[in-house]
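Hi, does anyone understand the following?
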Amino acid sequence: MAELPSYDLELKAAEERRRLHGTLAELRSRVNEELDFKKRVREHLGAACAVAVVVGLSLGYSVAGLYVRS
């Protein structure tokens, strides 16, 4: 098996680093898009409002129950 000159190996390593950096940048942007909370709430505004209403009513009734009970 013929050995590659060190210059060729350095070029291959540099190209591989560029490819990995590009892949990592793409992965970071995809993760940021997937975990964007505001975007998810905008996409599912009705469900988010329904959850907020249920939590608010439950919390309100439970707190009010503390003061009304005899």
User: Anything to note?
Assistant: Residues 44-70 form one domain. The chain has two domains: 1-35, 44-70. Helices lie at 6-34, 37-43, 45-68. Residues 38 and 44 are 10 Å apart (CA to CA).
